[in-house]
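Table S2 (text version). Query chain:
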Amino acid sequence: MPDGLLLWRGDHLDGSDVDMLALPRAEEPLRVGLRAAGLRPGPGDPGHTVWSDGGRPLDVLHASAWPRHYPSLDGLVARATREGDLPRVASPEDRLLIYAADALTGRAIDKLVMRARPLVARPGAAQALREVAGEEGLELLASLIEDPEEMARRARRGRLPYTATVRLALRSDAGRSALRTRLQARVRRLAPSRSSPSRAPLVALSGMDGAGKSTAAAVITECLEQQGWTVTTQWARVGHGMGWIEPVAKAVKRLLGRRGYTGDPVAARGPTAAGQQHEADDGPITRAWVAIVAGSNARNLWRASAPRRSGTAVVSDRWVADALVDLRLRYGSQPLAEAITRLASPRPDLAILLEVDAATAARRKPEDQAPEVLAGMERHYADVATRLELVIIDATAPPAAVAQHLREAIDQAITGPGGP
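Corresponding structure-token output:
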């Protein structure tokens, strides 16, 4: 993948790791290739994945996380050069601007100065740096890095003081971005873990069929693995594993005088159930039965979350929101059953709704649900999302955008087992 990868901090391979930038077209083949080569992903800085097989790791920065205080990604790629079989290498001017930005974010000055010295000593380096900085609007970064020794003298306890970052933040977008990054890193170091260290996280996915829950679960699983979690994916479909109460269902049907389904057959079984017997009923027997169904659903959700007790993170395909929508579609308004579902189910660390409209769901999963059921789903999911305060992600967006939103949600809500 010579055109999809870039050594953005230089071609020196003698450090503790190898810094690599993966452009969008290279991210998936790189992931597959590294796994095939025996490397495993691990947690890194936000937007980074660290791959290792026990030797020198590869620190891969994803293009979607390219910092705003660096030179533009398009400019960086256009100015990059290649020698031999290595991936392309960022130009000396871009690397100098990156080192200056890194100094503003609080990275250790000694290492940055060591990397910058040979670059500024090249003939014509100062003029070339000023030209690239002018193209990028990063003149203030150029003025900071053009004299590495002066930058080193300004350091306090091995880092550029906050006052220097603040001064540039008052004068440039790059300075403001660098200051924001530095403060965020400071908060991550000082804040307590958002996930209990004694219990692995639970991430719940909800949405209509065709919303992309399985794909989203794979993205979230990878994110959690990068944070250091062992992860399992659970399927918590409503009504699954209820064979133990089948005799109760038969007794309820006899009491109601029904030969078919207790709930709406089309909502329960799909379009092929149209025409089968169903009579509207909201009497005490039906309400009691639906409460039993709700309790069984909550029991299934507890079972799905059980691996957390042994330190395994859980990503669940379907959760409380899906159970509530399904109850409404099958049985109408059932306040007692909905209360049982909400209160008796485990509380996830992050609950996400992948939102799609009925037309999109029908196009992605044709003949899976009747049109009237899909329309009801769209309406009920919108209501349930508000009541449960779910994180809503537009699942009709391009897959790369959806994946990025998922990564951001995980980064904001979940931390690795060792804390931030």
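Notes on Table S2: Confidence is low (pLDDT under 50) at residues 192-198, 259-280. The chain has 18 helices and eleven strands.
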